[in-house]
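Trying the structure run again after the queue cleared.
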Amino acid sequence: MKLMDLYTRVVETTGLDVITLDSLNTAVANCMADLTSRGYRTFAEKHLEDFLDKEEKNDEEIENIYNEVRELWCTGRREEAEKLCREGIDRFPNAYNLMEELAWNLSYSNKREDREESILFFERIRANVNDECSRNFALGALVEMYMKTGQPEKAKEMAESAPPSPIYTIDQCRLMTLRGAD
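Done. Tokens:
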């Protein structure tokens, strides 16, 4: 496989274009360019291909865990679902779909510590995910969680920090309502 084909595969696998490559992909691309310029093209191609294969396998495994977690939640097996979700996050710390799933389900708990943990997950999602829909969802959930944990000032601050979004969601409705609250 040629280096350009591999680079194209990186772009297709991540769903990002050249302009929006995150720091990891930029670092990988820079490393590959450096190795290639020093005459290690075959070495670079082989290791990039291995990296991409591993990422694809990880994505498949994360998706399998996510689907199993959803099935457990839907069948009322909350403890099993939470345990599996936590194990998945421990194994794949950047599996934001698992993190979002756990945070969302913790937010329904009546325990303050669960809601506070939910806040930590939603803040991490908001800080690290590039997808606008996920970030808006996390922001709306944070507003709600701050209200549920008795932090209305923090909720209002969050709502006021929300950027205008072309995606009009229930979360945006909540944010607009809170913005109007005194």
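The chain has nine helices and no strands. Worth checking whether this holds up in the mutant runs.
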